[in-house]
Amino acid sequence: MRKLTSKTEREKKQKRNQIIVGVVLIAVMFFSVVGYGFMDNGDVSKKVNYKGFDFISQNSLWFTQIGGFTFAFRKNPSEIDAVESPLNYLNSYSGKPLYISAIDKESEVEITSNMRQVVQRIQYACFDEGNCGEGLPIKTCSDNFIIIEEFETNEIVQIENCVFIRGEKDKLVDLSDEFLFKILGIR
Prior knowledge:
187 residues, alpha/beta, 3 helices
């Protein structure tokens, strides 16, 4: 059996419970905000200025804006060794098809994700008829063509409209970033 209580006693008890719940919620919210403020957030944005270009780190990528376009890189220019090689600038790719052949998926993604906003389209192609996959067109250096391949030395070479990004497997992404830095005029 339930104990009979007056209306005022029930209202007092209900009000007291509401105050307790309110105080607990305020305390939880307060300590959540304080705890969040002291957390070590490993993805804090960093900013690097390299020769007048601002690079901002977010989600393990470095972003910079050039000419209304946003470009993303794995590393900023100060983290990559420069490779001496004369290359055509970005405007030579603008509005034209870009053909690519790559043995390394990460390097390919690095270039295609950045070039996609500038070129007319990107298409996979073959440079060597003997190593051509089924259905891929065979292109020459009269087309804008980027070939990424493993090689014993790290280099970026331009022959007519072909760019050969060659190097050790673990350096191909860095070389792809270096290629982009060069054609964007960052280096």
